[in-house]
Design goal:
With 430 residues, this protein is an alpha/beta fold. It is built from 16 helices and 14 strands.
């Protein structure tokens, strides 16, 4: 773990970005490969999707649509005990996101002038879920449930098939609980292409959400404009604010919980206590040796783990706000008192008994979060990502008459004659 002694005057944003720099693996090679995949699916539809699925996933499919029989079999395979866990987690996530729902409104701002906003759900959304050897039912919930709560009428899941042509049963079980309307065996950049452009058997969507590897991220970037996307997420990260009152064993475990996600995941400990930092570093080394996923976690710790030692807690908070981490744990004594001072974080976990995995799976807030410092200007995925706002405007004749000449004056200043005439012809009762 790299140690950074924060000087008394603190660190600048430029210095923080240099210290924590990670590339997003946007190589020209990946771009060219993805461009070819997108073009193939756009031009040849199901035929290209079938060929690419065979090439990348090792299975040739007659149909991409998951049947109800496959979903029923998956639910049976998952079993009632874990289905109950999934149901409870889904209920928690749903109840949290229901608080985000916006409603259409229209008010009278001035006599004869009514203004407002019409809230309309996106009509069809594609949710990408990584698959193959891994299973992420939590991602299924986090991406589908807010769309369902928003009122999206058509939610299509795209996920890679396994080599036997099936989809991981935990993904199917979670999708059935969350409210997916369709599930397709189409992963990778080719799955993103099918969602964006459509094929003979797959209707295109208006927006694509969900995480994926570098090829999926590049595909989302390239189809943006044809469709909307949620974000281009980089490798995961966690920042921990802690002092001597914290438990170094627990803090080390939380850092490793993030490091096991990805060999390029980043973990940050920011503390005013050198002795505490030393205890955490020792614990990370001890616990890392015992991890089954240490081959993934070890390079993350070696290359992207940073310990910032500050002069006091206030400076520690300043550093963390510049880091703008995806996940932020506050493990200071009286942690609630510091929440107001946090201005940049994707999700804030308050106190020793709120470790980041609680948020990943069960608490309710969304775990699709801005990464790589983008929490300084963006937000977690939510219901608001699945709706559009249309402005509403209505003037009475009297209100129109009161502003007509002012609007004409604006049009004349901007040299837009037809704008002014559209108002003047009404004034003249033409």
């Amino acid at each position: 773990m790299e140690w950074i002694e924060v000087p008394n005057e603190g660190l600048t944003l430029k210095e923080i970005r240099r210290i924590t720099k990670r590339s997003q693996s946007e190589s020209e090679t990946i771009r060219k490969q993805v461009e070819a995949i997108l073009a193939a699916v756009q031009e040849r539809g199901d035929e290209a999707l079938r060929e690419l699925t065979e090439r990348f996933d090792g299975v040739r499919l007659d149909s991409f649509l998951v049947t109800q029989a496959e979903i029923d079999a998956a639910v049976k395979e998952v079993g009632p005990e874990f289905m109950a866990v999934l149901e409870e987690a889904a209920a928690n996530i749903r109840s949290y996101h229901e608080r985000q729902v916006e409603k259409t409104w229209m008010d009278e701002f001035r006599p004869g002038v009514r203004l407002g906003a019409k809230i309309t759900p996106v009509q069809r959304v594609g949710v990408y879920v990584p698959g193959g050897t891994a299973a992420y039912p939590s991602t299924v919930f986090m991406d589908i449930i807010p769309a369902h709560v928003a009122g999206v009428p058509s939610i299509a899941v795209f996920t890679p098939p396994r080599k036997d042509g099936t989809v991981n049963p935990y993904i199917l079980a979670a999708a059935s609980i969350a409210g997916a309307t369709e599930i397709y065996k189409a992963g990778g950049a080719q799955g993103i292409a099918a969602a964006a452009f459509g094929t003979e058997s797959i209707e295109p969507v208006f927006k694509i959400v969900g995480p994926g590897n570098a090829y999926v991220a590049m595909a989302k970037r390239l189809v943006f404009g044809t469709v909307g996307i949620d974000m281009i997420a980089g490798p995961s990260e966690v920042g921990v604010l802690a002092d001597d009152a914290a438990n170094p064993v627990w803090v080390a475990a939380d850092l490793l919980a993030q490091a096991e996600h990805d060999s390029r995941a980043a973990v940050f400990l920011v503390t005013p206590s050198r002795s505490f930092a030393q205890k955490v570093e020792a614990e990370v080394e001890r616990q890392l040796a015992q991890l089954s996923r240490r081959e993934i976690a070890a390079p993350a710790i070696a290359n992207y783990a940073k310990i910032f030692v500050t002069k006091d807690k206030e400076q520690a908070i300043d550093v963390m706000n510049l880091l703008a981490p995806e996940h932020l744990e506050i493990d200071f004594e009286n942690p609630e008192s510091y929440v107001e001072k946090i201005v940049n974080a994707g999700a804030i976990f308050i106190g020793a008994y709120t470790p980041e995995p609680i948020g990943d799976y069960f608490a309710g807030p969304n775990h699709t979060l801005p990464t790589m410092g983008t929490a300084a200007f963006s937000s977690p995925l939510g219901v608001y990502d699945f709706v559009k706002r249309s402005s509403l405007l209505q003037y009475s004749k009297e209100a129109f008459d009161g502003v007509a000449q002012k609007v004409i004056a604006f049009a004349n200043v901007e040299g837009l004659e037809a704008h002014g005439l559209a108002v003047q012809r009404r004034v003249n009762h033409e």
